[in-house]
Specification:
Elements: E1 10-14, H1 19-30, E2 34-39, E3 49-53, H2 59-66, E4 73-76, H3 85-103, E5 111-117, H4 119-122, H5 150-165, E6 168-174, E7 177-178, H6 188-202, E8 206-207, H7 212-216, E9 218-219, E10 222-223, H8 224-236, E11 243-247, E12 253-254, H9 255-266, E13 270-271, H10 280-283, H11 288-298, H12 311-317, H13 329-334, H14 342-355
Parallel strand pairs: 1-2, 1-4, 2-3, 4-5, 5-6, 6-11, 7-10, 8-13
Antiparallel strand pairs: 9-12
Helix pairs in contact: 1-8, 2-3, 3-5, 9-14
Length: 361
């Protein structure tokens, strides 16, 4: 199934301008794939990528954008945040279904890789980390939680399409992703960099926004590049079954250890957890104008703070009521042994953000 050379493989990255999609496009182009990116924007995530635009919730728009493309591999990294989980299920399952209906009938499709995440084990945003959850480290073969979850609905759409169109599949359950993508709704590294830039500009300390559980508990994270490499491995390695894989860097840490080291690299004074959480939506309320002035003064590429930082998402991650890390045995045993040091991932991201003038030098 996977014996074709990379030049004969045609990749479609759904959500190619996002945090995972950008890293995936970079990896695909470097390996010589013909690569197309499908997103709401026409901007190509990098040179060598064909940019396609569609409203993923509109079947006609998706069919028109993908007419004649006939990809051999699809990497689905997109999602759309809605007000309720019921709406998340409706919208995000339809996005998977619309793409599968557009590319499946060609008969060329060999593999589809879908990015989900640890809400598979923790529950949806409406019930995040409450009620029944799985014990850490999370294992891929644990049963679904008894609660509606758009990740489950996306998987169901993928499995139905795979049965109908006879392609292999993989699901990649990433933890919080470290990567670079302006306008991305879930971007902790970029968010913390923006927080630090504002703190430094105003002479304020860099205050941990989370709760005591996250400050003291064990956690892990996922580098966007490692996620891309695992997806490519699962899509092309011979003999792998269709199944889900946890995707994390391979190290674990506590935020009480990580926070001062991040602060040092961002040039700010760290303040840890004390008495209660200090959410970023509270700390950074009303900072849009301050960021705009900072962007003008420093010549930054994005003056709209909402496209740089996602306070709500980082607050959600750093206020979970339980520790959160995954077991990586399944993919390691199958041959994927890649590893990333999380502090180095943060450091490299901050360097990139400075070079690209997203944050001040």
């Amino acid at each position: 199934m996977n014996t074709a050379s990379n030049s004969q493989r045609r990749a479609l990255v759904v959500g190619g301008t996002g945090i995972a999609g950008r890293a995936l496009c970079r990896e695909l182009v470097a390996q010589g794939w013909h690569t197309a990116s499908l997103s709401r924007r026409t901007t190509a995530p990098r040179d060598g990528v064909e940019a396609l635009r569609a409203d993923l919730t509109d079947p006609g728009s998706v069919r028109a954008a993908l007419a004649g493309l006939e990809p051999t591999h699809v990497f689905f990294t997109a999602w759309s945040r809605q007000t309720t989980e019921a709406q998340n299920i409706t919208v995000n399952s339809a996005m998977v279904r619309n793409v599968m209906n557009a590319v499946g009938p060609s008969g060329q499709l060999r593999h589809v890789a879908l990015v989900t995440g640890l809400k598979h084990y923790l529950g949806p945003f409406e019930a995040y980390g409450t009620g029944a959850t799985r014990d850490t480290p999370f294992h891929e073969d644990e049963p679904r939680l008894d609660t509606p979850n758009f990740y489950y609905a996306q998987e169901d759409e993928l499995w139905e399409a795979a049965e109908r169109h006879r392609f292999s599949w993989s699901v990649h359950r990433s933890h919080t992703v470290i990567g670079h993508a302006l306008g991305n709704a879930m971007n902790i590294g970029q968010t913390l960099a923006a927080q630090a830039a504002l703190c430094r500009a105003e002479g304020r300390p860099f205050v941990f926004p989370g709760n005591e559980v996250q400050w003291n508990g064990v956690t892990d994270m996922t580098d966007a590049g490692l996620l891309a490499r695992q997806m490519l491995w699962a899509a092309t390695a011979d003999g792998l079954p269709s199944q889900a894989y946890n995707t994390a860097n391979g190290d674990v840490f506590r935020w009480r250890w990580m926070w001062p080291r991040i602060a040092e690299r961002l040039g700010v004074e760290p303040r840890g957890y004390a008495d209660r959480p200090r959410p970023l939506e509270e700390q950074m309320a009303g900072k849009a104008d301050a960021w705009r002035l900072l962007a003008e003064r420093e010549g930054l590429v994005e003056a709209d703070l909402t496209r740089v930082a996602s306070w709500w998402h980082t607050d959600s991650d750093l206020n979970r009521p339980l520790e959160c890390f995954t077991d990586m045995t399944r993919s390691r045993s199958a041959g994927f042994t890649d590893y990333a040091d999380t502090l180095t991932c943060f450091t490299d991201l901050f360097d990139t953000l400075r070079e690209e003038r997203v944050i001040p030098a």
